[in-house]
Design a protein that fits this description.
Layout: E1 7-12, H1 19-29, E2 33-36, H2 37-50, H3 58-67, E3 70-73, E4 80-83, E5 86-87, H4 95-105, H5 108-125, E6 127-132, H6 135-139, E7 145-150, H7 153-163, H8 170-185, E8 198-201, H9 207-216, H10 220-223
Parallel strand pairs: 1-6, 1-7, 2-6, 7-8
Antiparallel strand pairs: 3-4, 4-5
Bound molecules: cytidine-5'-monophosphate.
């Protein structure tokens, strides 16, 4: 039994905008669980790729999504994801996975299957921050707080390059970030905020400022569960 107030925070945005760093910190500060929906798409892409299932084979991809056992630990300081007992967490952010994930995410049946799993996790956890592309609009349009994070593409590319530790040259990173935005825009609307969704432009903001702005949008009575 918990007397903690329920709280769902949905944060959407394009790649490299700082969704994950922001969501992690907000979840820790507000004692929430954390769900990175992109990791679910990434895990499925890794799994299908290992099994040589081409994204163009929509039926097989959808069948795979429906039978695999996706296990997710929604702890913000140790988020983990496994499929059928294989922990894939450390593979998710490899550049080769980023290059193929949109192809699997464009499968509408896959989206329906994963959305259902996300909604079940949200309903189960009580206090949770969920990040992705269509959380504010499709997965949890009734979330307590709905935010679209945006930033200038040059800033996003620079951030992604820093995350990769300079492993790829700026032109390749730029191609990946912009290319993925374009592919993902066909599946979800995350370029402009839907009605009722708050826009935060992080181009000129520090991570701490973005986190503070998100927390300021949470109704006060839901902010501090034990306060
Ligand atoms: O957020 P992240 O960049 O890790 O997401 C990886 C990919 O998963 C995206 O490029 C997109 O193809 C897909 N995705 C999606 N809908 C979401 C979250 C992610 O289609 N809600």
């Amino acid at each position: 039994m918990t007397s903690e107030p329920r709280l769902v925070i949905a944060i959407d945005g394009p790649s490299g905008v700082g969704k994950s760093s922001t969501s992690h910190l907000v979840a820790q500060q507000l004692e929430c669980d954390y769900l990175d929906s992109g990791s679910m798409y990434r895990a499925l892409a890794v799994w299908c790729h290992h099994k040589h299932i081409d994204p163009a084979d929509a039926g097989t991809v959808a069948r795979t999504a429906s039978y695999v056992d996706l296990e997710i630990v929604t702890n913000p300081i140790d988020f983990r994801i496994a499929i059928s007992g294989v922990d894939l967490t450390d593979d998710l952010h490899r550049p080769e996975v980023s290059a193929i994930v949109s192809g699997y995410a464009s499968n509408q049946r896959v989206r329906e299957i994963l959305n259902k799993q996300m909604r079940a996790i949200i309903a189960d956890r009580g206090r949770i921050v969920v990040e992705g592309r269509d959380i504010t609009t499709v997965v949890a349009p009734d979330a307590d707080v709905r935010i679209l994070l945006q930033a200038d593409p040059r800033r996003r590319i620079a951030r992604r390059q820093a995350q990769l530790g300079g492993a790829l040259d700026p032109a390749t990173v730029s191609e990946q970030v912009i290319g993925r935005d374009t592919a993902d825009s066909a599946n979800a609307q995350f370029k402009t905020p839907a009605p009722g969704v708050e826009l935060i432009d992080s181009t000129m903001m520090s991570l701490d400022q973005v986190v503070a702005e998100v927390i300021a949008l949470v109704p006060e009575e839901k902010r501090f569960p034990r306060g």
